[in-house]
Amino acid sequence: MNSIKKKLFLQIGSLIVLLIGLLILANTFLLKPFYIQKQKKQLLKHYDVINAIDADGYSASYDVLGDIENKSHVNIIIKDNTGVLYSTKFNFLDDTLIEPKLTPPPPKPYVIVQEKPINQQINWVWSEDERKTRFLQIVGTLDNSNRIKISMPLMAINHSIDLANQFTLIIGILLFVIGMFIAYVLSQHFTKPILDMNRTTTALKHLHFGTACQVRSKDELGQLAQSINDMSIELRDTIHSLNHSNNELQKEVKKRIKIDEKRKQLLSNVSHELKTPIALLQGYAEGLKLNVAKNHNRTDFYCDVIVDEANKMNQLVQTLLSVNQIEFGDIKIHETDFDIVDLVHYIVDKYHQHFEDHHLHVSFLPLNQPIGVHTDRLKVEQVLTNYINNAIQYVDDQKMIKIRMVDREHHVRIEVYNSCTSIPEEELDKLWDSFYKLDKARTRALGGHGLGLSIVKAIQEALGNGYGVELNPNGICFWFEVAKCTEDL
Q1: Ranges for the HAMP domain (predicted)?
Q2: How far apart are CA 407 and CA 430, in angstroms?
Q3: What pLDDT, in 10s, does the model give residues 414-443?
Q4: What is the DSSP letter of 431?
Q5: I want to staple 481 with a disulfide (CB 3.0 to 4.6 A). Which of 109, 155, 236, 411 is the partner?
Q6: Which candidate, 469, 459, 369, places its Cα nearest to that of 412?
Q7: For the segment 302-312, what is each residue's pLDDT rounded down to a tens digit?
């Protein structure tokens, strides 16, 4: 039996049955002594009333005595030495002490069962006739020396007890039915908030926080329901906070894993990039040591190669340090307001001679009016320079380069296009990785170390601006954005 409703219902029913049983037992064993005790008190009260009547006033007090007999169902006999002064009209007891003035019915013999003194004048007497009918009597003398006997039949008490038990049983069954109905209603009403709280806590166990207890009262159950609702809110907020922290931790773990992978890749790439210049340095240095160069011009060539490779290695290390500083926020950003159109004009003009030397077909589409931007001028120049160098380095035989500026609502977009052979779309995201080259053999024919676009990525993410690459039918277009000023220059 797991239902609190059933337990409460049966407990209330058991309590009703127990109370009815106790009431019947009380009637059976306690009602008779209680009844006799009450009758004793009543008889003593009648004795006191009769004792207060004057000896010559019995005939005058006939109504008083008759009223006592009628109300209490007692028989009264009062005698003196001459005979009976007063007697109940219907005397059912034989009295051997006196002769009644009226002719009594035939005497009925009785037996004294018990006698117990009350005081010096009167005694309690329990007697029994031939039909086993018991009587309770006060027998003795009055203050005026007259003798008195007050008798009360006890034959009705046992019958009354049987009737009381029968009535109690009938009423008890009726009360049991009514009580069980009330118990059912009360158990429904009492257990409804408990069942509601049980459903809510079950939902909480499965981390469903959409359900809440209905607070129907301000008693202990209402306070418990409110506490469960408060606990649900606290658990929801705590779990939400834990989930958020867990997501942040997972992101951090992924970030750390990615950093470790980048470090491993960086180590592999750096070792690969440094392997060639170190081998050249070692070979030419050993040649000088062994005096392989027989003349002065050859010696100068060996030294020039060593210096050139050392410079390349130094440039590579400086570039790596720059990328590392930008990615990890170790470099300061100096944001100022300036005209982006003027800056792009300056950078394109700076490359004019370089374009002519390489016989490149360059088209530049600037904006027609000055536009103020708010960012780091040197970083923007570095990004655009890397894009232009990258375009010059990888332009194909068409030698087509296009530089365009596009005015957007909140920023200016700068695009650098160069004609080139087709590039697989799945390779685009890898272009921003350090040391990544489309040349899988990683030869030195095209120059560079594959760090230019990774520098662009680091700078734009540090500045909070967009960047990207798009494939065109005959080439590729790299773009980046610069945030506009909130006010005009």
Answers
A1: 188-240
A2: 28
A3: 999 999 887 777 777 777 776 566 554 444
A4: G
A5: 411
A6: 369
A7: 777 777 777 76
